[in-house]
Amino acid sequence: MKLVTPTQMSAIEDECQRDFEISDELLMESAGALAAREVRFSFLPELAKGNLAVICGPGNNGGDGLVLARHLHSQGFSKIKVFYIGKEANHSRLFKSQLQKIQKINVDSLDIGMNASAIKEFKEFGLIVDALFGVGLSRPLSGQFLEIVQGINSSKVPVVSLDIPSGLSSLTGEALGGAVYAKMTLTFGLGKPGLFLADGPKFSGAVRVLQIGFPQSLLEKHAGTHSLIEEKEIKKFILSRAARSHKANHGHLLAIAGSPGMWGAAGLCCEGAFRVGAGYVTLAIEQSISNSNSELGSIYKESGLEVITTNRSDPVSFEKKTAVVLGPGVGDDDSIKKIILKLIELKMSKVLLDADALTVLSKMGKIALPNTWLLTPHSGELGRLLIMKSELVESDRMTAALKASEKYQCLVLLKGYRTVLANPQGQISIISSGNSSLAKAGTGDVLSGFIGGLMAQNLSTHQAAALGAYLHGRIADDWVRAGNDAASLMPRDILAAVPRLLSHLRSGDLN
Q: Is 0.85 topped by the overall pTM?
């Protein structure tokens, strides 16, 4: 799904009026009418059993709410009350026009700015439409606006937000002082990144995109940098497997992973690569291991994993390997730096750096990596790469990922809620799956294996990262949907769920 930033949305609206002669009033009429229809279809029981409150801010988002109120009123829903706020001098031109229209047809309306006690009335309604602020909000809510948002939330009444829940940043997903908890958000034209990042999913509820009349060519012109990766997009990346294929047709991953006390990381990574279909997986370690006493014993015996011993001062041979994963459980000694430099020298095109390799990279200063390489940090690791606090990374995950991608000139997959994938060209994808089940040691090693195994099978780095991250998060989502507690997911549960999920994505059937 394509997404649009506030700046891009402003450009679309301006050009729509200037170049296509589609007025802002016509767009507002379309937005309000379509939102009214969606509210009627989705919340008919709530409309039937109680009054509707439409809470409008002084700008064009408030105008959208007024149009919605007028359309529902004309369809026979007479128990509507509009609450609006802001001095008349602060009302937008379109808001003033729409307010006059609803007053002429006797829709009940009240200036809540002059009647602050009316906030207490919110709990008496069957449904609330939030039209306080749209995507242009950039500063924290305060004063009466914050009180209104708090009143909406404390009412416990179902809420439909127009375009975005009031108080939520449409770019970062951060709550700006406070935000409305919506049961559904009806957003216009295209989705907004903030609906799917950080606190966005918690506040937005179900998100539906309404096409209100923006020319398609205009959306394609401006909305080319941000996207949401969902099942529909992921299915395009699922690899086919010919009946007469053999293991040499499905890639060879070299995993440089594990060290004494950390063999589990290597095992999870390698099994992850096998689970997504890699034909060969070779594990390069710094000392020989025994089948009988190694943590890798099970996978070593059962999966055909090849284990080679290497002295890290003399980097391993990368011949005939189609992808490399470097980092899970390797430690952060100087030999890892030598391997990174050797991989660059050999022009290896498909390389994933994770975990300890990222710590080493952070000590190497600014270095341009091949643009097909992938870094897979969590916020703490990305903070070290950018020399900034992890809290700042979390406050604007997209910007942080883009900065790292620009610094190292390669792709960056910033793990967390929500995982984002950035490239040096300024494009960013949000992975729609995943939850707190994945906040556990070992899950990142599985993800590295997924992505490395897919890279080895000749998917592009972007495709492999998007598919691997989606599978990883989707398994966690399915785990919770099945009634399991989020805290109970284990890395091996993720591995065990891969076959069924891949089959579903190919066939569309989870039975």
A: yes
Structural domain boundaries, residue 98: 2-224
In this structure, the answer to whether residues 251 and 290 fall within a common structural domain is yes
What are the C-alpha distances in Å from 404 to residues 4, 36, 352, 413?
Answer: 22, 43, 15, 10
Contact of 96 with 58, CB cutoff 8 Å: no
| Residue with the two structure tokens 């939520």 | 168
Name the residue among 431, 441, 429 with its Cα closest to residue 475.
431
**11 and 160 part of one domain:** yes
Closest among 244, 169, 165 to 206, alpha carbons compared:
165
Residues 207 and 307 in one domain: no
pLDDT digits (tens, 9 = 90+) for 366-418: 899 999 999 999 999 999 999 999 999 999 999 999 999 999 999 999 999 99
112: nearest Cα among 136, 93, 87: 87
pLDDT tens for 38-89 read 999 999 998 887 899 999 999 999 999 999 999 999 999 989 999 999 778 7
Note whether 377 and 414 are within 8 A (CB): yes
- Nearest residue to 213 via CA among 3, 21, 2: 21
